# Entry
Amino acid sequence: MNSKEFSNLLLKNKFLVSDGATGSNLIQRGLERGSSAEHWVLEHPEKIKQLHMDFIDAGAEIILTSTFGASEIRLTQSGLEENFMLINKNAVSLAKEAIKNSNVLVAGSIGPLGQMLKPFGILDFQEAEDQYAKQADILSCSGVDIIVIETQFDLNEAKAAISGVRSVCDIALICSFSFDRGVKTMMGVSPTTFFEEMKEMELSAFGINCGKSLQDNLEALKELADATDAPVWFKPNAGLPKIDAYGNPEYDVSPGKMAENVATWIEAGASIIGGCCGTTPDHLKAISASLKAFI
Ligand SMILES: [Zn+2]
# Structure
């Protein structure tokens, strides 16, 4: 699906529901700490597929592949680099099996590389660009409908990501930043700067995901939506985790509380809504029901 087709779909539907979290839900379903969703693509594919199906049942119209940490360089950190191609291909297959013959879109998820770019880290721009290009090439050849570059915090890395993806395919592309220091990223990037720096890069939507509190996510959304007329992708996290007696994260925002905020998010300018960390299928069902009230 190219950019034009994606914007036509959004015009037709007015709003789209994306999915909830991958990592925190897989932890609830038994993923051990220190392991990753990418491990489970190979070891427990049925659980990845089930999570996709649960989100679709809850109302998701876009689901993200379990490939957030599946760049080659990031897989190297967990010893999975030999399976780089297989993990990305299989993750797309699992998402496609989950949507069956429905109109749900499969979005290829690409997260940060886990290494900073120079001068803060060791990667130069070209290396970063190549990493994103390689992963996007597999995702697009495997048949994703769109690509979402998520949880970005550094302008340089995001630019490398976008140009890397663009060098191998021209499907609809969304870039989403994590403003987890209030309304700035850990590198001090504001929503306005994000838009200003990326506005010439032909993105289908500008996104916010995985910030801090719902209030901080909302402030970031308002600032971004004020800066742009482009569609805004919004996946706030369900609050911050507290660690329970078993060492597992528990999120403090209930499905009802998330759903109560949907009207405010729409008013603030969000047009594609889902949730990040802590957002379960129950949260998404409540969000989706609230959103449907506006259509
Ligand atoms: Zn998150």
